[in-house]
Write a structure and sequence with these properties.
Layout lengths: L4 E3 L2 E3 L6 H16 L8 H20 L6 H17 L12 H4 L13 H17 L5 H10 L16 H10 L7 H5 L2
Antiparallel strand pairs: 1-2
């Protein structure tokens, strides 16, 4: 076998910090949306497609890896183009800022997920899962390699820490006074 290879749908041995790692997901999103190209569907159906299809394709990857901003920008652009006029010639007018569309319905938005915040929330869930008392092999492996979940709050980088662990530490604590995780936990 050559590295990287695919196991359970994820490229093993590939660098998740590079755009090439995410290109498979971007291609899948474009192919799924291409089925609807040129069809006249309402805004409500477009929102439903964006919420269900794009979020579900990316969910597994985003729960394991921090998505680079370049990839977030590409996927957000695909979402915007689909919503405002997928398949039409020329440039369509965006009547509302995308940030406003990503707000909750109670705040006046459409409830479309902001990919950056969604990615951080999914990665922050690892701290929560490590802090629970449920046993599991995955938990034993992480505890033996990195220590308890409280190690996420410490700003000490281990020499052999993976990029995955470093990304989770940045979100869940690290050297910040109040982490994103602690500010947003209920």
């Amino acid at each position: 076998m050559n590295i990287p290879f695919t196991y359970l749908g994820l490229p093993v041995g590939a660098n998740h910090r590079k755009k090439e790692f995410w290109m498979g997901m971007i291609i899948r999103i474009r192919k799924r949306l291409a089925r609807w190209k040129g069809r006249y569907i309402s805004f409500a159906r477009r929102v439903t497609l964006i919420k269900s299809m794009i979020s579900s394709i990316l969910l597994y990857y985003m729960s394991l890896f921090k998505m680079p901003m370049s990839v977030i920008n590409i996927i957000t652009r695909i979402q915007r183009e689909f919503f405002w006029g997928w398949g039409h010639e020329g440039r369509r007018i965006a009547w509302v800022k995308w940030e406003n569309m990503c707000k909750t319905k109670e705040e006046g938005g459409l409830g479309i997920k902001d990919l950056r915040m969604f990615n951080m929330a999914l990665l922050g869930k690892w701290k929560w899962r490590l802090g629970r008392d449920e046993p599991g092999l995955w938990k034993e492996v992480l505890l033996s390699k990195y220590g308890s979940w409280r190690a996420l709050d410490k700003g000490i980088d281990g020499n052999y820490d993976s990029w995955w662990w470093r990304n989770i530490r940045k979100i869940c604590g690290g050297r910040q006074i109040t982490s994103l995780f602690d500010r947003n936990i209920l």
